[in-house]
Design brief:
alpha+beta, six-stranded mixed sheet
Length: 183
């Protein structure tokens, strides 16, 4: 599987790992989940190099995903069965309450996976979560369950990491579950 670099936004502005450490939590969750579906992911640098250098494309930005033809062409160049694109958008509110900020973080994750052999969209999903709502645990496979957490005070970065990671798990869970039981 090839995964194009995801687009991350914080309050409408694109962000990176250097600006927002919570990006690492979302990338980490994707890295954990895809092997559960028995999918081997190519190195992000290789995928990016082929996309930009060999195909002359710019990396995705904003909420629009690249078209199916471009994703299929990328998949064929890389010799993979699937190509995934995704984005993660955080919205924050941090009202000052007595001793410090009382941050509330909402996160929406969208993913899209194209089947390279058939040339059509194989999966598309959007999931969201927020730092002030406890949600039911997700069962990914028999040996993996992910729980959300509610954090009521403190800095925004841990909240962003938790909400982003859980939203990514919610968005990818049906896809991962589809493949997890197959040999």
């Amino acid at each position: 599987m090839a995964v194009l670099p995801w687009v991350f936004t914080e309050n409408g502005q694109e962000t990176t790992v250097a600006k927002c450490p919570a990006v690492t939590a979302v990338k980490g969750m994707v890295t954990i989940l895809l092997p559960k579906a028995r999918l081997i992911c190519l190195d992000e640098a290789k995928v990016t190099g082929v996309w930009m250098r060999d195909m002359g494309k710019k990396l995705p930005s904003g909420t629009a995903f690249p078209d199916d033809r471009s994703l299929v062409a990328l998949g064929k160049k890389l010799g993979v069965d699937y190509v995934m694109v995704g984005n993660c958008a955080w919205r924050m509110q941090s009202p000052w309450v007595e001793r410090g900020p009382n941050s509330k973080v909402e996160c929406a994750v969208s993913v899209r996976i194209v089947n390279v052999k058939t040339g059509v969209e194989a999966y598309k999903n959007t999931a969201s979560t927020n730092s002030s709502r406890k949600e039911a645990p997700l069962t990914i496979t028999r040996d993996m369950q992910i729980s959300s957490m509610v954090i009521n005070s403190g800095p925004k970065t841990p909240r962003m990491g938790l909400t982003g990671g859980f939203a990514a798990a919610k968005a990818l869970n049906p896809w991962v579950s589809k493949f997890a039981g197959k040999k």
